[in-house]
Design brief:
Elements (H helix, E strand, L loop, with lengths): L1 E4 L3 H9 L5 E4 L11 E4 L2 E4 L10 H11 L3 E5 L2 E5 L2 E4 L11 H14 L14 H9 L1 H16 L20 H9 L11 E5 L6 H5 L7 E2 L3 E6 L4 E6 L2 E6 L2 E4 L3 H7 L5 H8 L3 E11 L9 E3 L9 E3 L1 H4 L9 E9 L7 H14 L9 E14 L5 H14 L2 E3 L11 H20 L1
Parallel strand pairs: 1-2, 1-13, 2-9, 6-15, 13-19
Antiparallel strand pairs: 3-4, 5-8, 6-7, 10-11, 11-12, 14-17, 14-18, 15-16, 16-17
Helix pairs in contact: 1-13, 3-4, 3-5, 3-6, 4-5, 8-9
């Protein structure tokens, strides 16, 4: 028996692809999706912050499109950076036209300087994230976007982070791209997400829900509380009490530190490794305003520290069904250390002031709905400790019959597409092993 812990995308994909093998899937919440969920409040639909589908893998794209059939709509990305009181297109490094001339010059000369110098080396396998930014993009782009934006997002000095995770998210442009972007010449889309797909209605929750007709033995309201790895027994708690599941293998999709904490017979050294893993939390502030078309953009980045948030998005521009007539809806993201908390009232007030200062909202705008979701596990910190710790933890768990997958199960920075692929790949390996 295979026990799957968590019915997010990775867990659902694993169950979907385990056809013909016995499994049970147990989910703590009363709905599927994990953070890939949507909810409705006062007639407005919000995701648990922005969830947009960018496909790089042909097989996963085909799978998702087959599950959702005609329920997806393709959008050409309309994302911007707001800095120096000016909107420039995203990515910043190839769209500096329109910024103050001295800023454009600083960014352009800084990038050109990277072409003639040898990359810096660090004692570890890769340079720090900050050094990678400077080496790859130059001092100007670092100063005016990459460093302040990422300091707001990650909440730690960028010298503490590695750069081995950024290649697919922050591709280095060539000199033609940067020069063209400084001159306002647009001859190609840039970045990993120049277009995206999003459900026509219902929000992103329709994606995990699309797996349900093909998934069996799914139990809600069942939280993992303990695993005896030597005896291959897992204990779950629900409103009805505790239940014990015997297993041959566990597929876990919960955050790696939570999984290790629940494995009661792991060595103390493993607990210490997991206890030192770091992450950042995010306040997902959702608002609705009694004014149409507060923005025509999909999302906006705010690198400057005078704004408390690092990004704001507009669900009604993904799909009109997300909002109400005569209104606009938006989500705003503020990173914070997991140990720090702020009241909902104070957060909404800070966000409102920031949006007014940026010109997104007007002082006369009426908020008709406001809500805050605190995403405790939001982004994994890729510090120099992470790689070794995660490798040892995953290896030890695998030896004990536990496969940890998904964004937080593998303790990495990956997409919805990757989570689905990980579930698929693990299920295929287990099926091949059973057939051997």
């Amino acid at each position: 028996m295979i026990v799957i812990v968590g019915a997010g995308l990775a867990g659902l994909s694993a169950a979907y692809h385990l056809r013909g093998m016995p499994y049970k899937i147990l989910e703590r919440e009363r709905e599927v999706g994990g953070l890939c969920r949507s909810y409705v409040k006062d007639g407005f639909t919000f995701d648990y912050t922005g969830h947009l589908l960018h496909f790089r893998q042909t097989a996963i794209k085909a799978l998702v499109e087959s599950l959702l059939l005609d329920r997806l709509q393709k959008h050409a990305r309309k994302s911007f950076v707001f800095s120096h009181d000016t909107y420039t297109e995203y990515p910043f490094q190839v769209n500096t036209y329109g910024l103050p001339p001295e800023v454009v010059r600083e960014c352009l000369l800084g990038f050109i300087a990277t072409l003639s110098r040898s990359p810096s080396t660090a004692p570890a396998d890769s340079p720090s994230f900050k050094q990678w930014i400077i080496d790859s993009l130059g001092e100007g782009i670092a100063k005016h976007f990459m460093v302040p934006f990422n300091e707001k997002l990650w909440q730690v000095p960028l010298d503490e982070l590695t750069s081995d995770w950024v290649s697919w998210l922050v591709p280095k442009p060539d000199v033609k791209d940067v020069v063209s972007g400084a001159l306002g010449i647009k001859d190609k889309a840039f970045g990993y997400n120049p277009s995206f797909q999003y459900p026509v209605s219902g929000g992103i929750k329709v994606l995990p829900e699309a797996f349900l007709p093909s998934v069996e033995n799914l139990t809600y309201d069942s939280e993992l509380v303990a695993i005896e790895t030597e005896k291959r027994r897992a204990v779950f708690r629900s409103a009805q009490g505790e239940r014990t599941e015997e297993y041959d293998r566990i597929i876990s999709t919960i955050p790696l530190p939570e999984l290790v904490r629940r494995c009661v017979d792991l060595p103390a050294s493993m607990r210490e490794l997991a206890g030192a893993l770091r992450w950042v939390s995010v306040y997902n502030v959702n608002l609705a305003v009694a004014r149409e078309h507060v923005s025509d953009k999909h999302w906006i980045y705010f690198p400057e520290h005078r704004y408390p948030f690092y990004r704001a998005g507009f669900p009604m521009n993904f799909s009109p069904s997300m909002g109400q007539p005569g209104c606009s809806s938006m989500y705003v993201e503020i990173s914070h250390p997991p140990t720090e908390q702020e009241s909902e009232t104070a957060l909404i007030e800070r966000v409102r002031r920031g949006l007014e200062e940026a010109g997104v909202l007007q002082p006369t705008d009426e908020l008709v709905m406001s809500d805050v979701k605190d995403l405790y596990y939001a982004y994994v910190l890729f510090d120099r400790y992470r790689s070794r710790a995660v490798k040892e933890l995953l290896g030890e768990l695998e030896r004990r019959g536990i496969s940890s997958i998904g964004r937080y199960g593998l303790w990495e920075h990956t997409s919805m597409e990757d989570a689905i692929a990980q579930g698929q790949q693990l299920a295929m390996r287990l099926r091949m092993r059973a057939a051997a």
